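The protein record quoted in full:
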Amino acid sequence: MTTVWRYGALIVLAIVYAMPFIWMISISLKPDTDLNTIPPSLIPSHITWSNYPHALFQPMLYFPRFFLNTIIYVVLAVLGEVLSSSIVAFGFARIPFKGSTFLFALVLSTMMLPSQVTLIPQYLVFKELGWLDSLKPLIIPAWFGAAFYIFLFRQFFMTIPREIDDAAFIDGAGYMDILFRIMLPLSVPVVVTCLALQIVARWNDFFGPLIYVNSISQTVLAVALTFFNVPDEPSPQNLLMAASVVTVIPVILIFLFLQDYFVQGVTLTGLREG
């Protein structure tokens, strides 16, 4: 009986948490005449599939271009973040050198610095470099690692026996060989965890593209959704929700496919201290 109550509670909570997404889908399928009905209805009077092509293929709001910009941004930034963070973490975890503990603590201390503090200095630097109105300010800094992912990789690398390194050295392998041919293949859970977190974060990134990207041709999806809110004009809620549904579905699918690795990676990173 206890199990039945647990599953019942889980189903209720799942419905509660899914209601915003269900309501978004409902609005995206409603005709214009249903948008202002009181009280609002969850089920459309008739399903209007044409909202999706109208939302995605407007001449001035061509969402395939925004999708392409977002994919370029996500792929390059995520690749740089994971690659650079794993290299730095490997140095902290497997290469002994003087001051490594202090440097690792210094790296972690950067997590306490709010991004808003460095926003203006970074903006001025990117302006002097001529990177504004492009994806460079969003992609290139990602290739210098992030403290949180360095911590995750380092903690996972510490759980792998050092005898593997010794055996690889005997066979003539170098540090880079050990990292890319041994450590990373053994670290699939933490790699996938970092990929999942970064993909979701970069895909939903609104603030960065809003600050650094000005032209529509370089705009990403998170910012493009705001173009539906035109001042002094009625907002096409059904078109906005249609574009939002298409935007959020890739993130949901990625997380569903990677959730097992995600849980395993987060769990295993805390198995060893040091």
